[in-house]
Amino acid sequence: MTPTVGDLLSTMVRRCPVTFKPFRIFVVGIGFFSLCFLMTSFGGRFSAKRPGDSPFTVRAEVLGGQESRGALRKISDTLEVIMKRMDALSKLGNATDNHRLEELSSALDRIQPVGLVERIQAIAQNMSDMAVRVEQILQRSIATNRAKDGAFGQCEIPKDPRYPDCTSKMDWMRARWTSDPCYAFYGVDGSDCSFLIYLSEVEWFCPPLVWRNQTTTPTLKPLARKQAVFQSDIGALLEQVGTGKESLSFMKRRIRRLAAQWASAARRLDEKLRNRWRDKKKILVHIGFLTEESGDVFSPKVLKGGPLGEMVQWADIVTALHVLGHNVKISVSLKELHGFLGVPPGRGSCPLTGALPFDLIYTDYHGLQQMKQHMGLSLRKHKCHIRVIDTFGTEPAYNHEEYATLHGYRTNWGYWNLHGQQYMTMFPHTPDNSFMGFVAEELNETERLYIQRNKVNNMAVVYGKDASMWKVSKDKEKFLAVLNRYMEIHGTVYYETQRPPEVPAFVKNHGLLPQQELQQLLRKAKVFIGFGFPYEGPAPLEAIANGCIFLQPKFNPARSSLNNEFFRGKPTSRKVSSQHPYAEQYIGKPHVITIDFNNSAEFDAAIHDIMKINVEPFLPYEYTCEGMLERVHAYIQNQDFCSPEVPFPPVNSSEALLERFFIREPNSRILSWASSIISFPSWPPLTALRLLTSLQGQSCVEACQSKGLTCEPAFYRFINIKEAFKALGFQCEVVESEMNHLFPAFSTEHGECSLQVDPLLFSCAGSSAKHQRLCPCRDHRDGQVALCKECL
Fold this sequence. Notes:
By secondary structure, the protein is α/β, with parallel strands linked by helices. The protein folds into 4 domains: about 155-215, no CATH class; about 235-435, no CATH class; about 445-620, Glycogen Phosphorylase B (Rossmann fold), CATH 3.40.50.2000; about 655-780, no CATH class. The strands form 3 sheets. Strands 14, 15, 16, 17, 18, 19, 20 and 21 form an 8-stranded mixed sheet that branches. Helix 13 links the parallel strand 1 and strand 2. Helix 1 packs parallel to helix 4, helix 4 (about 65-90) runs antiparallel to helix 6 (about 115-150) and helix 7 (about 165-175) packs across helix 9. The radius of gyration is 35 Å and the shape is globular.
């Protein structure tokens, strides 16, 4: 039997004399280089699918024909000549030192070593030429097989208008199927039949093949529904979080510290829901920013004053999902992601090996990019199951890839064409997204009493753990000097022993404190003061919850992606009016005081006022454990971006009927939904809808807030009809439909009523000086802006 190339190479290595290692390496190197060249020339057509095959064995079925076997025999013969030369050298290993030198001289005379190098080079060139010849044989063989396939009529490209891309995908596979090993994993071997089978059964670009005995695509039976049950034991969750990173250790410490509060909150919510059925979901949490592949710049800085807000939020998310009773898996590496999803081996061009094994996937932008690289077409198929944790929010104009590209909204983030509410934010600043949030620790009565007794009226703590936040400018010098006249200033700035931080001498720096020690400091302090950065973090809420007044700077002009380096490139045009807009707008005085720090008189007056007032610890309900459980429960049980929406308006609806959908509220220009006339499936329920118009130059976010309401993008499809304009009193000279994130809207200049073409562009954000926008608003629960009064 003719030896395989792998067998010959192995024999070459064994026969090379140990004494002459340089020569041995040289010969084997030349041989291996030639083999690699040959394999490359074959274009990836080596296979080792059979148990007995070596990775270097060339399959006769692939090469085909007597001519290819002859070419391989020549390669084997050439390598055999090299091995015979080595046999003579291998005998030298058993000789004495003197005799070995004599035999070496004799052997070298016989084989003419100078010529040997040239011969090996010639052999390599011959092998290169043979590789070209074998490639030609391959092409003829494949062409012959295609002709045979066509003769039987099985592997002709089907002409089916329901699969318009089948032909182009076949052409792509013929040219590129060797570009990713995943195609071979699914059985692709270079023949048209294998291409068609793959494109019809693994992907979905070609119709099912009748001769495969599956006239219809097999459908999986839906699994039996299981009921979610609240659980307070966190042991299994802590095991899921894992070890090996300081960020994970931080998250586990937080989960343990808050375990009792989560358990108590779960009992209260269970009573509120009155044992209502809750579907138990299989949920994957992939924390992309903590993977090594994304760089993970956060973990090394956990103990050095680095940002912790994201880890706080992720710890609370996984805890909420676990306590609600869902089956949660956690991934912080690509290896874990591959294993959980069933990613085939290769470079990520192919779909998953089976159905998506999860109902929901929570990830971040880093994780979303990783899934795009490794899930192939499956991401497009399953992206409705994804929820993206997105601190600063993503507006629809940035999310819509085509629109963003055409109208200047394209950034390094965004453009994923997700439903806007699949993005989940840290604060409720972007109604187009869902508000996920986090939790701050609640105080019991004993802790409240301690604060009441131990507050120090002239003590301030500065918000900023990193020394860079303390770089003193003239503005900071002014207000720190004013503050120092009235108060003792404390800091929690990280520093290394040999390099103390550059903070003013009158600041008492405690260094980076563990969470419990930081809380003790906040419970004594009267004021928690912000320098203007970081933006929208969790620390101000924790300070307010511990009885501090948060004093923060007002930004004039407001900061955004248009004028601020930090926000530049983020997929939002939101204007940030202060360091913490949520604290300013949703909490406010006396717990939050927002002033112009550049105005010395205003700053001085604010300090005087703070010295005179006392405040109780305060925590908004939506940032308690119960508030977060309530909100996440409602999202999981009601948000569905996978099922097709029931068309609206209903077919054959008359214009008169559509006009009756909206009724005007007494003594108001606001319209509500006439639920007595028509009931339509929706979440939030349509009974919460309040329709109004914005002023020119006003966004729907602002218009709804001005009436004490919240903009609700899920209602846009119900007001995107010309009858809504008529109900609001607009006279439409022209009705047009267009892709524009400001529509539906009315142009006062031309009397045009403009409707929205693409539902992905329904947006609460955005304004125009030329348009009055139609705004779908809703009410909300006390302390829970994410949910309407009837949403639970």
